[in-house]
Amino acid sequence: MKMGIPHHFFSILFTFALCTMAAPRADTQPTTTKRSTRERIVTVDKSGKGDYKKIQDAINDVPSNNVHPIFIRVEPGIYNEKITVPADKPLITLSGRNAETTVITWNDSGDIIKSPTFTVLASDFVGRYLTIQNTFGSKGKAVALRVAGDKAEFSACRILSYQDTLLDETGTHFYSNCYIEGATDFICGNANSLFQKCHLHSTSKKKGAITAQQRKSSEENTGFYFVGCKITGVKSCTLGRPWGPYSRVVYAQTYMSSAVLPQGWDDWGKISTHRTAFYGEYMCFGPGANRTRRVEWSRSLTNQEVFSFMSLSSENGKTWIMS
Fold first, then answer.
1. Under CATH, what is the fold of the domain 9-22+78-316?
2. How far does Cα 50 stand from its chain's mean position?
3. The pTM is what?
4. 172, 176, 80: which is closest to 127 by C-alpha?
5. Residues with catalytic roles
6. How many angstroms separate the CA atoms of 209 and 269, rounded?
7. Tens of pLDDT along 80-89?
């Protein structure tokens, strides 16, 4: 008997994306931080009407090995800053009021570790209602956002660049209702991340890849999982290519415009990855979702296969999601 769409599919796949990671259980806390209900709220306003004029100054004043939630409210404006959230400053929420009017921008390129406009190394970070952009352009690697801390969440953010826009480097991450734009490998890295209801827009004029996931072995519990997302583009793109030999990417219930090439995926000239990469699609729709001409080493996932992914546990990790 043919099965219908799984009940509460979004929350189930979300659970899968989290439970495969070596993250703390829902009833435990990280060994280096302990949550407290006491929260400190500060304001950044470049006009001088807040506690700080610069975002980095507000972050710098967060105590090392912080144990209390810090809420940094960013007033509308264009903040020309290169920002880092150090590893010893967890539990920060950075929130604008509207992503269109709260813009963090820089112009740098070359090295994916040194070029990011915004770098998150700390755990338990939340970013909301922000535009994070790297304006360098189309002539090199230019990261807008690098996320290398565990348990990071970005909600209703705009993340913009051209190549390597979002370096989703390592950790367990959750992106919801975000707009992510770029042309070449513009979501890359080796994190284990769920993208829910995000809009992915390719500015590539020929065969640019949306993802370059870097899973290096079958033992790594990493991957990018897109659920209920939307893909558009100015011309043509592929869904992903393997930065690592065991690259793992799944699109589920995602709208794919005609910008998605019929082949769907690219092997980056690495034929050996046909045996090791895991590229799956599940109940996607739109003109770019037709799988009749997909590369034969990608997978059309059945309900049973999707359920097999999601059978590891039920609620691990969910307590750190703030939205």
1. Pectate Lyase C-like (2.160.20)
2. 30
3. 0.87
4. 176
5. 164, 185
6. 13
7. 999 999 999 9
